[in-house]
Structures are given as C-alpha cells and as structure tokens.
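Hey,
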Amino acid sequence: MPRLKKIFLWVLAVYIAIPFIVKLCPSIQAKLVFLNFVRVPYFIDLKRPQDQGLNHTCNLYLHPEENVNIGVWHTVPAQLWKDAQGKDQLWYESTFQSSHPVILYLHGNAGTRGGDHRVQLYKVLSSLGYHVVTFDYRGWGDSEGSPSESGMTSDALYVFHWVKERIGKKPLYIWGHSLGTGVATNLVRHLCDRGTPPDALILESPFTNIREEARSHPFSMVYRYLPGFDWFFLDAITANDIRFASDENMHHISCPVLILHAEDDTVVPFHLGKKLYNIAAQSQSLSGQKVQFIPFPISLGYKHKFIYRSPELPQILRWDGCRRSCL
C-alpha cells in the first residue's frame, strides 16, 4: 500500500505539473501541434521516392526564402510512367505542358512527404491522371528552417506559384489533409483575396480552427474538463501565433470546395468537418460556387487517413469534369 500510494502521488504531481509547464513554456504546445520532430518511417531516404514505389516521381528542392530549402516531390500521371524512367528534373518540369491537371498536396503534422498513407494517395491520384506536387514544410523532413503557421503558408504559396508558372491555365487544385487543411485554407484565402483563386479546394479531415481541434483531440481528453483548460493549453497555442482559422477563411474563399471526412475519425472528429461545411455553405464569398460534403460511414473504417482506399474516389475526382460535375 505505501508503494501504491507513492506511485499515485507521483502520477498526481505530474498531472498537476504538466499544465503549468505548458503555460510557462508555450513552445512545448507548438511542438505538439506541429509534431515535425516525429519522422515516420524514420529511415526513409527522401531523395529516393522510388524506394517507396514511386518510380515516376522526381525529388527536387525549392528556395522560398534565403537560407530555407524545402524538399519537393513531383509525381507525374501514371500514363507517363514508362517515359519517366531515368529522367531528370527538366524532363519532369516539361511534362507540366501536358493536358493533365495538377494537385498540390499539403500534408498534415508529423511524418514527412514520404509517409505511407500519403504515398498511397499520390499513387491513386496519379492513376487518375493527375500530376501530384507535394513538399515538406520548413522544419519537416529534409526541409530547412523552423515550423510556424506563417512559414508553412509562405512555403505553400511559393510552391503554388512555382507550379502555376509552369502549367499556365491548366487546372490546379489544392488538397489539404488534417493540419494541412488549415494551411490550404490560408493559401486559398490569400489567392482569392488577390483575385487568383485555384480551380478547387479539397479538404480531407478538416477542422474549424486549431483551438476547437485541440479541445477535441484525444490527447486533451485527460485535461479537457480541468478548470482553466483554455488558459493552460489553448492560450499557449495562440501565444505561438497558431490559429489555422479555416472557419474564418471560408468567408474569403471564392472557388469550389469539396470536404471529405470519415465518421470514425478520432483525430479530427467528424463533427468539426461537418461544422466547417455548414459555415462554407452559408458563406457569401462562396455563393454561386459548388460546396460539397462527402461523409464516409464508420463501417468503412477509413478513420483519419485512409480515405484514399475508397473505391468511390475516382468518381468523386473525375478530372475531366471535376470543377463542373464533382465540385
């Protein structure tokens, strides 16, 4: 009994100490939001996408700012697979002149552009005739710099313009997943404010804003009902200038919006994606644009990151009429 009592007191002390540590060191909360230090799988060589079964993918590096290099993958449509073998970056860039549309994919927190569920999605999109361009934000993977919301958005904007310069007027879609949906709406809001919206915005497992997501995240369960939870934990996120306010951004976006969400998602709860859709459906800036919400039932087991397994995805993303009939 004395030993159990000692263990209990230690656990209680840690439980009480953590909120104060987070409050005094808000950078800890920022690390938990980004999780850029979690690199899974760890031993992947990002310079060799072919090791992940992407034999029609080129690895390259872009320079959005001085002293910041970010790692990028460009996967060409599967129809170009044979031609892509052994080709260099110049050849890959030349393929942007083909008639195939492009998806700029913005991944979520943790891991890298080489995460397995991300790689599987690239393969699906490539098989449907898309170019897929994805990258690791500064501070992720082999990209230099430190993570921040503004830095992630700046990187996305830079890559968007890099792609746009090479494809001209061909369709360019923005796809964000999880935390990447916050980056995506930041990016698209910026583009729409400048009168240059993308052809469509696709949000997979999105949330409304980072405070609501943090409150709903399973990691917060043990503290959610603690008096002062917002002050201890959520204000620490705001102190790092992290907002990812997709709900606010929806009032500035003026392009078709498609939201995909699995009902059994425990990381970003389904009700947050539904709430964001309701906001988008009532947005004045989206009046006249197609706004669609596609739920995936619990029975399918897609959870947070397996929507790419849906056999309905080809129909949803039929590229030859995506803007007209799907979005």
